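Discussion board: Methods & Data

I've been asked by a reviewer to show the raw model output for two of the constructs in my manuscript, not just the figures. I'm not sure how much to include, so I'm pasting the format here to get opinions. Each protein appears as its amino acid sequence followed by a line of discrete structure tokens. Is this the kind of thing reviewers expect to see in a supplement, or should I convert it first? Here is construct A:
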Amino acid sequence: MTENALQIEGLTAGLGDLPILNGIDLVVPFGDVHALMGPNGSGKSTLVHVLTGHDDYDAEGSALVDGTELIGLSVEERAQAGLFQAFQYPVSLPGISLAALTNEMEDVSDDSDVEERAEAAEEQLQMQPFMDRYVNVGLSGGEKKRSEMYQLAVAAPKVAILDEIDSGLDVDAVKAVAEMVESLRSPKRGVLVITHYSRILRHLTADRVHVMVDGRIVESGGREVAERLEAEGYKQ
């Protein structure tokens, strides 16, 4: 294991002749939870797409998960390297129960601890009422995010990218999701939370807050960065 779960250096990306990421440098050590904030159009979603392997983007530079270079790998290979994404709008899987999905995760993994993690996460996140239901079908926003956190716990990735997991949630649900993220902290994992707003950071202790503007990280700091952005907005 290296010191850093996620290490990005000089990452650029664009769509055709349109540059979007203009040299991203970002490090998330193992055991840390970092927040990435920025206005609409700053490149946050593109960064997620590039890291997770969308092939629409021309990317150059380096993005390492525990020392493994992601750029050039397939989506499946990135997942095998230890990368996990929780979606802003989780996909529904009609016909596939959460229990069946869990069994599939156990079958395809060579990790002998998957079943034990699944049982522990089911109890910790109170997933019993959802295990026999189709994945994310008929669930509230908060319930879908709980399901995502359960899948994260079972998968036990080295890097978890949580893409606007507070989107569309009420105050109580935001607090609940933040507490779930905190409960999944691990010295074997780094977490990057992508968000527009500081409200989730009222309940989630971010070790570092990064600000992205125009495809670059323009500032990094502690909780005070998020508080200032909440009061003043983004200045370009």
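Construct B, same format:
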Amino acid sequence: MSDQNGVIKRIHGAFEREPRIKLHRHPIKIGCTNGAVVLEGEVENIAAKKLALELAAGVEGMRGVVDRLRIAPAERKGDGAIRDSVCAFLLREPEFRRCAVRVAVKGRIDTLREVAGDGGGDIEVAVEDGVIMLEGKVGSTSHMRIAGVLAWWTPGCRDVVNSLIVEPPEEDSDDEVVDALRLVLEMDPLVQAEQIGASCRNYIVTLEGFARTEEERRQVELDAWCLFAVDNVINRIEVRK
């Protein structure tokens, strides 16, 4: 028990030292079960969630981290409204025009769009307690990442479980992360993508360039955090009005 208490104190201390986690506004409950750390609570955004998981995993003494963290949405919405919104994103986005889209509701699968032949993939969407779950297959790693970002952008979303499979399989890389980020920034109406430069090393993204406002600077960073497998984001974007 004393060892567990020591682990919990070290994790809590690491959270307090990370300004993006903001424990004073969004407390995180830290517990232990079966040799693993359990994190519960609502955090401000995906950056705080990923940082909390990484910091907890980096503390020695436990065998893993159980993720029960959720994002505090700007607006609370029911699962049906969330499901409708994320499906509308997928149906409207040109990157997925050759992709079938289906929804799972109470054990029933409804098809919103069918495609002839193999098409460009087959995405199934389910929502439970604000958590968006994506299953099926897509034709590239970029499509897998973009689908996840669209889910994170959905109003009311509290978390995303991206279980999409890439067929045929592709080898992931830092360059692939940068390519996906460029597509995402071009899709984001709040961002001037041509003013932003990005690089990636070991799944740590570095952002450079110029933004018109602090809000745009923050939005670019959150877009990068939303990408599957990104472990950290270094934001060097300057605000120029």
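Answer (T.O., handling editor elsewhere):
This is acceptable in a supplement if you add a one-line summary per construct. For B, something like: The chain has a mean pLDDT of 95.
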